[in-house]
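Before a colleague's protein record goes any further, I have to sign it off. What it holds is a sequence and that sequence's fold in token form. My question to you is simply how this chain folds and whether the tokens agree. Thanks in advance; the entry in question is below:
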Amino acid sequence: MNPALPSLDILLCAPRGFCAGVDRAIQIVELALKRYGPPVYVRHEIVHNRYVVESLKAKGAVFVEELDEIPDTGQPVVFSAHGVPKTVPEAARTRQLFQLDATCPLVTKVHREAEIHFRRGREIILVGHAGHPEVVGTMGQLPPGAVLLVETEADARAIAPRSPDSLAWITQTTLSVDDTSAIVAILRERFPQIVGPHKEDICYATTNRQEAVKRVAGRCDAMIVVGAPNSSNSQRLREVAERSGCPVSLLVQRAAEIDWPRLAGIRTLGVTAGASAPEVLVDEVIEAFAARFAVRVEVVTNAEESVAFNLPRELRAAS
């Protein structure tokens, strides 16, 4: 520790960074490259993190937004962790593309819930963010109009379902736990018969990372969330830090994006990472602070995670 530098306590949130669904999705691309060789095509960013995407590109992954960008090929085509509408695997089958589904199993659980509610004649309300790939994928499991999207408390108060006595609600897996609770409370008050999930849709990793931030936010002068701007769970971490009493909360993809003037005079810094941000980027951020401060790091653990998901059958022998 350099006594000439100002001191800084870093409260490092745990858990942080990769969740089991993200880890599985990245493994699927890496193992497909190992087993089948490049190119391996990936529809949409496999996870919302530029560093991860660029690393996989360097190994031979080719990222596309739609299947029509992929030539006729026997090489693997991977669907991202966020899930896809049913039309996508159907189109892949029509073209006889070799598809590998990297959809997070917790997102698949929401898809299955939606299908069950639909079969039982219920109109479905999805709490989520319009345009997010996970929401597009979930709504795309059912015919147009079967799912109503609610983004805010105001939406929940205004929504006018066709079948108010036969409703179900599901959620995007990466939402703010507190925001979602408030929206669901309004839906339950307006529609007492509404049916919810048997088990919470917001995933364990999202919940754990938000709770870890809540534990440290009130002790911090600032919070750094390592993650991508298009990552829902990373944006929610930044918002949770602000709401939990942290004066400055910044979302950065890399250390180079740190807004140093906004951090002038800080004595205690919280650091966490979204579920698609690799630990190497957290290390990079801490090293950037260590170059400017005499840093002392304290790990603040909220929960232990031991979740792991199976790989697709085609890749298990390659792992």
The chain has three domains: 7-18+204-301, 20-104, 106-190.
